[in-house]
Amino acid sequence: MESFYFSLLASSVGMLLAFSSLMHMRRRIAFLYSMTTRVLTTVVCEKCNFKLLRPFSSGDYVHKEAGKCQQCDGETVITSIYAEETKKKLI
After folding, report:
1. What is the CATH number of the domain that holds 63?
2. Does 76 share its domain with 49?
3. Beta strands in 19-74, from DSSP E residues, in sequence order
4. Angle, CA 80 vertex, CA 76 and CA 61 arms, to 5°
5. Strand, helix or coil at 54?
6. What is the Cα 42 distance to its own chain's centre?
7. Which of 40, 59, 74, 78 could make a disulfide contact with 69, Cβ separation 3.0–4.6 Å?
8. Are residues 31 and 8 in the same domain?
9. What is the pTM for the complete model shown?
10. Is residue 16 a contact partner of residue 24, using CB atoms and an 8 Å limit?
11. What would the pLDDT profile of 70-91 be if each residue is shown by its tens digit?
């Protein structure tokens, strides 16, 4: 009877470790997939049409005033937000 309980305990621990490993692997794959895309924001000056691409930041939305232009001190507006896939391979 003791060997039955020991076998039951050992198999339970083995199943938990296998489940934990699968969950870790799934989380890592999702993280690596999220790193393959980057979100960019396009900012355009209304006065001189100077175009700037920058990484997306929280609070960005289309038609939002983004501050002063680097070239002419005119007002800049966010014109588009899009995701760009990188050419890196998943390991």
Report:
1. 2.20.28
2. yes
3. 37-45, 51-55, 65-68
4. 75
5. strand
6. 18
7. 74
8. yes
9. 0.55
10. no
11. 888 889 999 999 988 766 555 5
